[in-house]
Specification:
Elements (H helix, E strand, L loop, with lengths): L1 E5 L5 E6 L2 E6 H5 L20 H5 L3 E5 L3 H6 L11 E5 L10 E8 L2 E8 L1 H13 L3 E11 L2 E9 L2 E7 L5 H12 L8 H8 L28 H22 L4 E5 L6 H10 L4 E3 L7 H14 L6 H4 L12 H11 L6
Parallel strand pairs: 1-4, 4-7, 8-11, 11-12
Antiparallel strand pairs: 1-2, 2-3, 5-6, 6-7, 8-9, 9-10
Helix pairs in contact: 4-9, 6-7, 7-8
Length: 339
Amino acid sequence: MIIGVNLNHDYAYCIISNNYVYLREMERHSRLRHHWNKESYTLTILDDLSINELKQFDSIYLNSPNMNQIEEKGGILSSHSRDYVYSGEYLTANHPTGIVYGKLEVEGIVIPCAWVSHYHAHAASTFYSSGYSETDVLCLDGGGDWGFGGWFYGLNQTLNLSHQFLNCELGLSYHSFSKKVFNATKGFYESKAMALAGFGNKKNSTNQFLNKDTKWQSELDTIISVHDIAQFQFDFEQGVLDLINKHKKHDYLCCAGGCFLNVSLNKQLAESNIYKGIHIPPYAPDMGTAIGCAIYGCLDHKIDIPVKDLQNPYIGDNICASIADLKCVIEQKGDSVIF
């Protein structure tokens, strides 16, 4: 039995055992969009598992963009209730395999442990759930370990990193631009900007917000109209398409990362006819890296990857609530509530 954990926003863990897949996404319980706080960089999420349950895991696979800080703290991933301490190797930039090994100690037990690169975890979550044998794999988001995405080639049961996108800031630019639109200092507003883009007409915009390096020209001091948002959305889509045309090798494409929550982008990819088929899993954002980590565990332990189960969007908790309960949540959480 393998468990993979994402220590970041979209805080989550995934268990794979005997063709069984379970994904626990904390935002489903906290009702906080992307669930992100200080505890998201610890293993607090495992506190609901008993020590006897933890003993049953063959290995635990982790990923986090803050590995450097964890190394500086001596591998301490402790919660308020338990001491979790990692010891072993840590990933560095340009690591050839994207995975290193060690052990995790918790309450007297020792569990074999590994760190998986953020983009290797993303890539695994989409490639191994796609059912494709030969495919290009594109990961794009607002930033992970050592860059803003990666291009992989998947062949049979092997993933190979071809390019790290160290300067391609498409995801980060969209994040920064959307915060500018809503005059926000923190949080995630990409979905709201994407929705507004549908009400604009890029032909009515005279601004250029993305430069040739796909970076947002944040020095532009202008009032952003709905037409400007439409222009930005178009430039963003073209940036992704240009990236694909530059690196395309196979007839199929797998995608992962927060950029592929963008419905308009996904529509453009589907209608471009660049590929015969495109796979974007329902867990494209960072909670999917927990699945990717668990998949790497399956590969190491020669456990069959349950492809059909991974293609099912209903692999998390069945959360039910009455109308009265939902009204109570809305009153307590306000704009942060998600449904």
